[in-house]
Each structure stands twice: as C-alpha cells, then as structure tokens.
Write a structure and sequence with these properties.
The chain is built from 13 helices and two strands, in the order ααααααααβαβαααα. By secondary structure, the protein is mostly helical. The protein has two domains: about 130 residues, Peroxidase, domain 1, CATH 1.10.520; about 140 residues, Peroxidase, domain 2 (Orthogonal Bundle), CATH 1.10.420.10. Helix 8 packs across helix 13 and helix 10 packs across helix 12. It starts with 7 loop residues before the first helix and ends in a 21-residue tail after the last helix. The structure holds protoporphyrin IX containing FE (HEM).
C-alpha cells in the first residue's frame, strides 16, 4: 500500500520514534575497539560449558534476571555493599549461579581490551552462547549496553515473576518490560534447561492449607516429585524442569507442559490461557522445532533490549561484581 504524501512525514516520525525505542544497540559495536570480543566470549564459554554443562541454564537465567530489573545493565552482578542490599541478595536471586564464570570471561576481555566491553554485553553474549552450546539456536546480538550503578534487592523481589504466577500476572509483568504474551510462552521455553530447588514448586505437592495436591499437576508425576522433595522444608534436592533432556535446548519442555508436567505453576499456567495453550500444544507436537528456535531467538533479542543504558549513561565496569 502506498503512503499518501501528507502522511509521509508522520510515518517517518513514527519510524524514528520506534527505532529510538528499540535501544541504540549495534551489531558489531566493538568491531573497532575490541574486534575479538565475541570470539573471546565464545571460546571461554566453550571451555566453561565443556567442564560444567549444567552451567548453561544458570547463565541464561542470569541474563533474564538482569534484564527484568532495571533493564539489561548487569545490576544483577553487583555485590551488596555497606548500606545497600543488592539484587543478587534478593530472595528470588538466591538460587542464581554462574557469577564466577562471568568474572572469568570479563577478565579475559579486560586483558585484551581494558575498559571497553560492558558486563551487560558480556552477560548477553554468554546467554546466547550458552543456548548455542546446549544445541539451541544462534542469533546476532546487538551490543553497546553500558553497566548500571544501582542495584536493589527490594526492586528484584518486587519485579521478578513468581513461580506461583498465573498468566494474567505473568503477562502483566512481561508487559511492564515491553514484552508480550508470545514472548512469555516462548521465553518460558528456556525451562528446557536447568534445575530447580524444591521450594520453587513444593506447594504444588503438599498443599499447606487443605493437604491436597495441585490438581493442575499430573498425579503420577506429583508422586515422583514427592519422592524427591520429601517435605515442604527440603532445600537440598534439585529437579529438572525438562526431565530427560535438561542439558539440551530443545522442545521437550513443551511436551511436559502439554502433559500437565510443567514443574512450576507458571509453567502449568501456560495451558490455561487459550493463546499460550495453542502455542504449547503446537510446539509440543515436535513438528515445529525450527519455528520455536526462530521465536526464541526473536524474543531473546527483544529481552536483551529491555531498559538498556547506552552512550554516556552508566559506566563500563572493570569487575562485574563492583562499581569502578
Ligand atoms: C515466566 C516467568 C518465569 C518464572 C516464574 C520463572 C521461575 C523460575 C524458577 C522458580 C526457577 C528455579 C529456581 C530454583 O529453584 O533454583 C527457574 C529456573 C530457571 N529459569 Fe525461569 N522463570 C521464568 C522465566 C524464565 C525466562 C524468561 C528464562 C530465560 C530466558 C528463564 C530461565 C531459567 C533457567 C535456565 C532456569 C534453570 C536455572 C538453573 O539450572 O539453575 N526463566 N525459573
């Protein structure tokens, strides 16, 4: 359809506004200042995952928890200081892992190009490489994020989606980050990787009020989970969200969810909403793996744009755990 001449300036204005909103990040941002940056991250990640394949999930999750609180600005990596309890020490972040690996990759980059590559970009690249190394899709990562100077545990506790969330609540939290229902059902597919502690789902096994199990959970599966999590206070045991292939990035998570074997209420909830249910059931057939890989790449790119600092905002930290 042709745009009428009078409408053209308006259309251009709208385009300019929307591209400004899409964050000022660039593919190849470090091509002059640190040309090997992506290669250094990739090579270090290959070594890290070769030794500890189970770190792929935690590194992907770190990026998500970073982006959902103050945007993708590496605020999740900062240590608490006297007078400030940082995001890292918020309750939902207590189970995060992989901080040492981020410091290790950052140290390599500092040795090659001091003060150039932000921790926020390092984390974004590491999460993409984690997915690739777990046999998932790859996608180009636009770079140029800067590191934030603030980190608050209270913000993390109030802004991260709870495992008990239903679709309306999760959709509201995602919308507050500029992400839609499709991003919610697609990014939940990250639960194809990794493990969870009993407290994240035990309320579905031993209902503390009426002694009943969550009816949205397959009862045979609930029996198996109860053998692992012996009581509501069990904090030691781990369960996979995608049993059978929790170290491989694939579509079997959706098959578990479709069979009412999603581990968290937030996973199970994807079957209750008509739009998310359609997507779960479609990908669960195993006939649309390439579509899921494309969708995941697109939603990760969107998530990596959330609230980024660019230009002269923030700083480029020397160490990811502390301000300069
Ligand atoms: C939709 C809302 C989400 C909720 C409520 C949620 C909740 C959780 C919870 C409770 C855990 C287990 C923590 C533990 O007990 O150790 C977990 C693990 C994980 N989450 Fe999510 N999550 C969500 C979305 C996402 C997204 C968007 C990603 C990444 C794109 C992600 C990636 C992961 C990964 C990889 C793990 C496993 C980490 C490990 O192995 O240590 N999650 N999530």
């Amino acid at each position: 359809m042709a745009i009428r001449p009078l409408l053209l300036p308006l259309a251009l204005l709208a385009l300019a506004a929307s591209s400004a909103a899409v964050a000022n990040l660039e593919i190849g941002f470090y091509s002059k200042t640190c040309p090997d940056a992506e290669k250094i991250v990739r090579e270090e990640m290959a070594k890290i995952i070769a030794v500890a394949p189970s770190l792929a999930g935690p590194l992907l999750r770190l990026h998500f928890h970073d982006c959902f609180v103050r945007g993708c600005d590496a605020s999740v990596l900062l240590e608490s200081t006297e007078g400030n309890v940082a995001e890292k020490d918020a309750k939902p972040n207590k189970s995060l892992r992989g901080f040492g690996s981020v410091e290790r990759v950052k140290a390599k980059l500092e040795a090659a190009c001091p003060g150039v590559v932000s921790c926020a970009d390092v984390l974004t690249l590491m999460s993409r490489d984690a997915v690739v190394l777990a046999k998932g899709p790859s996608w180009p990562v636009a770079l140029g994020r800067r590191d934030g100077r603030e980190s608050s545990a209270a913000e993390a506790s109030s802004q991260l989606p709870p495992a008990s969330g239903d679709v309306p609540l999760l959709a509201k939290i995602f919308a507050s980050k500029g992400l839609g229902l499709k991003d919610l059902v697609v990014l939940s597919g990250a639960h194809t990787l990794g493990t969870a502690h009993c407290p994240s789902f035990v309320d579905r096994l031993y209902n503390t009020t009426d002694g009943l199990v969550d009816p949205s959970l397959d009862s045979e599966y609930a029996d198996k989970l109860r053998l692992k999590c012996r009581s509501v206070d069990d904090r030691a045991m781990l369960s996979e969200m995608d049993p059978g292939s929790f170290k491989t990035f694939d579509t079997s998570y959706y098959r578990h969810v479709a069979k009412r074997r999603g581990l968290f209420r937030s996973d199970a909830a994807l079957l209750f909403d008509a739009d998310t249910r359609d997507y779960v059931q479609r990908i669960a057939t195993g006939k649309f793996d390439a579509e899921f890989f494309r969708d995941f790449s697109a939603s990760m790119t969107k998530m990596g744009d959330v609230g980024v600092l660019t230009g002269t905002q923030g700083e480029i930290r020397k160490k990811c755990y502390a301000l300069n």
